[in-house]
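Page 47, continued from p. 46.
Same chain as before, 104 aa.
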Amino acid sequence: MNEKACSGCRTLVLIALRRLRIQDQFDKAAGWTVVAGKIDKLPDVDREKLLLVGACTAKFKKEGIFVDGCGPVSTEIVGAIVGEEQAVWWDYADISAAVFNPPR
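Result:
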């Protein structure tokens, strides 16, 4: 992730990855490149597994999978990685567990 990414995008990407881990879907994140923050050019990676997170990456939204927002919604990040039809949406209790009681 870009060192210029704000704490909001960084946190929401980490929460999304933690959700994938709790749901035993973390392996689906393998091979993805996540870009967040203000950038001038994209990395030379597979565009089908390029996740552009947050409003700061909007100028590149046609170059990969784009999740809009400032900050973006972590469930949308999960949905982008696993495919919307496979995403498991959480209620508030699940979100609290992911944030405050991470798996070890």
